[in-house]
Amino acid sequence: MATVPNDHIIRILDSAIRVAPLQVEDNWRLQQVEAALSLVHLSGEKVVKIGEVFRSEVEKGIHEQPSSLQMENTYIPELPDGTEEGLFLALDLGGTNFRMILLELEHGKLIREEVKHYHIGEDMRIGCGEKLFDYLAECVSDFVKEQNLTGTTLPLGFTFSFPMIQKALDIGILVTWTKSFNCPSVVGRDAVQMLREAIHRRGDTHVEVVAVLNDTTGTLVQGAVLDSRTAIGLILGTGSNACYLERADKVQHWEVQRHGEKQVIIDIEWGAFGDNGVLDFVKTDYDRQVDQNSLIKNSFTFEKYISGKYMGEIVRVILQKLVKDGVVFNGKASEKLLTSGAFTTSFVSLIEQDTVDGVGNNTKDILDKLGLTSDEDDIEIVKYICEVVSNRAALLVSVCLAVLLKRMDRADVTIAVDGSLFKHHPRLKTWMNKYIKLLAPGKKFRLLLAEDGSGKGAGLVAAIALKLQKRFQET
Ligand code: GLC
Fold first, then answer.
1. Short-list 99, 192, 210, 100, CA closest to 147
2. Are the C-beta atoms of 417 and 216 separated by less than 8 Å?
3. Residue 230 CB neighbours (<10 A)
4. Angle between the N-to-C axes of helices 215-226 and 453-474, in degrees from 0 to 180, rounded to the nearest 10
5. Which residue has the higher pLDDT, 9 or 316?
6. Which one of 10, 24, 156, 181 has the fewest CB atoms closer than 10 angstroms to its CB?
7. Which of 101, 93, 99 is closest to 118 using CA atoms?
8. Which residue, by CA, sits nearest to atom 2 of ligand 1?
9. What is the torsional sign of CA 184, 189, 190, 193?
10. What is the pLDDT of residues 221-237, one digit of tens each?
11. In this structure, what are the phi and psi dihedrals at residue 132, rounded to the nearest 5 degrees?
12. Ligand 1 pocket at CB < 6 A
């Protein structure tokens, strides 16, 4: 296929990514808002450059050269093939809640699913690692008892949605915490081992942790059950990350014996893209401020541009600046507007809904709830900021997905997606479809919602792990 020259793509992008102009009565306010947002808008040229930088970081990461992308081998060399059978547990840890799930598979199909949500308070998320894992084991035990399965040996797939160095399918050394967790004593340790030890300390169940996986991996695997063309897994939720099927011969980091694998899932950990400075040309003062307000500073640069934990916060710091300059809310902030985290990404989705519908009171209601007195222009400005920030996220995600599609060289790829941001934002998907098409011309793809990949996928990965164990023992 002939490649489309970059300047052509840049020209098309520049006209395609333009958001609807801000409509306000007061020209001074208009100019102030545009000046404040000038660096948040991405030009076609910048987008193409981001793609080039991402491609180079992917290449370096896979060759184990210094890169902000981990490109971690997950040791999952195959997708479900309809032979998965039996009872499996899944433990899904990543957000502020975690879940225990019991899955029963018959011929690869889910015939029964029991789910229980457990809350993890801040003292658990930010504190002593042993305490966290003891609590996880307590919940495992509670769930198994509730299901009347204490005497049964149960394989468990552990979805641990944090960056790990994987030494095998059941070894995951935590690199750093992200999102809302920070238990420093776990960093550098094997999360599987810690969970196993905590389960054994209790000694009241027969649960065996057979695999550890990332939520993107679970999403890809679950996506493959829904659509066999699935070859990319994407999470756009509290955090953001993607994984994809790579040719095994291209993968250098492989710590266990190879068994003639043809492909393997690679967890990119793209949240950390740019942590080495390669994305500094995208960074605005607002992004710096969001990073400074975050739990773990100077890390997960890309995630802080695009994901649910941070998008609302970007809007909040922009608004804070505009209040200071007297451009919005008559120059008066409220206590909530000055509180980090108070403007959530769910607000951004609701405000975007007003823009998409052309009517609606979400924006006004949210500003009232935040204790802000707003006029018509304020409302338009807030809607515009949400649009610009959301649009930037859509572009950033799309350009990376386009690079993957080009790299994978498959005729047709389904991208399995999960995550609250993707599900609730009213037009992220539409933008992504449009931008990916422009950035990867001629590539056939679709975005498929694969709900609960981190839960169902964990059960499926546990089943694959058992199949592999059996096969390798026989050979
Ligand atoms: C964070 C984690 C990553 C996970 C993503 C989505 O980026 O580091 O492992 O996949 O969040 O939950």
1. 100
2. no
3. 23
4. 90
5. 316
6. 10
7. 99
8. 162
9. negative
10. 999 999 999 999 999 99
11. -60, -50
12. 94, 161-163, 178-179, 214-216, 235, 237, 239-241, 269, 271, 303
Atom of ligand 1 nearest to the CA of 239: 11
Residue 204 falls in the annotated catalytic set: no
Query: Quick check: helix, strand or coil at residue 113?
Result: strand
Instruction: With CA atoms as reference, report the closest residue to 304 among 239, 369, 357, 360.
Output: 239
Residue that is written with structure tokens 């009517």 in the block: 359
Integer angstrom CA distances of residue 263 from 74, 173, 470: 11, 23, 19
The model's pTM: 0.95
Q: What's the confidence (pLDDT) of residue 2?
A: 53
**Strand, helix or coil at 319?**
helix
397: closest CA among 63, 30, 47? 47
- 4 pLDDT band, cuts 50/70/90, is low
Which position has the token pair 């004593």?
185
Domains of the chain: 6-71+273-449 (3.40.367.20), 73-225+451-467 (3.30.420.40)
Please state whether beta strands 86-93 and 412-418 pair in parallel, antiparallel, or not at all (unpaired): unpaired
- For residue 454, which atom of ligand 1 is closest to its CA? 12
Distance CA 102, CA 467 (A): 19
Report the SS3 class of residue 263.
Answer: strand
User: What distance, in Å, lies between the first and last C-alpha atoms of the chain?
Assistant: 42
Residue 96, amino acid: T
- Catalytic residue (one of 67, 68, 141, 161): 161
pLDDT in tens, 127-136: 899 999 999 9
DSSP assigned state of 173 = E
